[in-house]
Design goal:
This protein is of the alpha/beta class and 264 residues long. The chain contains seven helices and 13 strands. It folds into two domains: 44 residues; 201 residues, Rossmann fold (3-Layer(aba) Sandwich). It has a six-stranded mixed beta sheet with strand order 8-7-9-10-11-12, with helices on both faces.
Length: 264
């Protein structure tokens, strides 16, 4: 059998998963192809025989549809009031996904600071960053995975980075205990949702242990940042904005974090 040559940097899908996800080949070692999701926060590995080469994906339809919604909201006449959206601190274990989110924040008109930090180092730095930047919303994300072969999905030992995210959430809650003063959005693909919520996150992934889109935490953050402080967030409609809805993200009810003033 002759296989099409696939090199580092090429874009591929996996036949065994019905070609459902586009990956970038980030490394090839001893016949193993190491992959990174283009849109979803997912690492994987594969043999050459399972891979199908594909073109570089365009701006994905999901991200574009949410941008269209943001574009329409910008066109609303806000009369004589002025608006101060909530400020975001986004800590990410992946620089490419972080860059994608920072562009999204800028497009949405929300001020955000981004820091690329390895998942295992986040808990050591989060307190200092919160003290320095004093955000309204904190995102703790990167890469994660649930290893089904290890067993019980309730055990944090069976996840790639859930333990690290939990430690970072707890460190953040040591800085600010109030869920209203600091909204925390935590987790990545297949993370232990229940334990992240218990640790102090307002929103977390992943209730059904599914993959999440790179922008899912950012979409929730922007929604909260652009909702007035006296208005309750519609949690169901907010989760429906994300790629996989309540299967991928969940959380607790709360208010928006945008101040409104008068006159402009």
């Amino acid at each position: 059998m002759i296989f099409l040559e696939i090199n580092k940097g090429d874009f591929v899908t996996r036949k065994s998963y019905n070609n459902d996800t586009v990956f970038k080949v980030i490394n090839i070692e001893d016949g193993v192809y190491y992959l990174k999701g283009v849109e979803v926060r997912l690492y994987a590995d594969s043999s050459l025989g399972d891979l199908v080469k594909c073109d570089k994906p365009r701006e994905d339809e999901f991200a574009e549809s949410f941008k269209n919604e943001s574009r329409q909201s910008k066109n609303i006449d806000k009369d004589d009031y002025f608006y101060l959206p909530g400020k975001i601190l986004h800590i990410d274990g992946d620089s490419e996904y972080l860059d994608k989110c920072l562009k999204f924040y800028k497009y949405s008109g929300v001020f955000a600071i981004g820091k690329k930090i390895k998942e295992e180092d986040m808990y050591e730095q989060v307190g200092l960053l919160l003290k320095e930047y004093k955000p309204d919303i904190l995102i703790i994300t990167g890469h994660d995975a649930y290893f089904k072969k290890k067993g019980d999905m309730a055990s944090n030992d069976n996840y790639k980075n859930t333990k690290n995210f939990i430690k970072a959430v707890k460190a953040a809650r040591n800085y600010e205990k109030s869920h209203e003063k600091l909204v925390i959005i935590a987790g990545a693909c297949q993370s232990n949702y229940e334990e992240l919520i218990k640790a102090g996150a307002n929103y977390a992934s992943s209730p059904k242990r599914v993959n999440i889109h790179a922008l899912d935490p950012a979409i929730i953050a922007v929604t909260i940042a652009l909702t007035e402080r006296n208005k309750e967030i519609d949690i169901k409609s907010t989760l429906e904005k994300t790629k996989y809805g309540k299967d991928g993200m969940g959380g607790i009810m709360g208010n928006g974090l945008m101040y409104v003033g008068y006159p402009r």
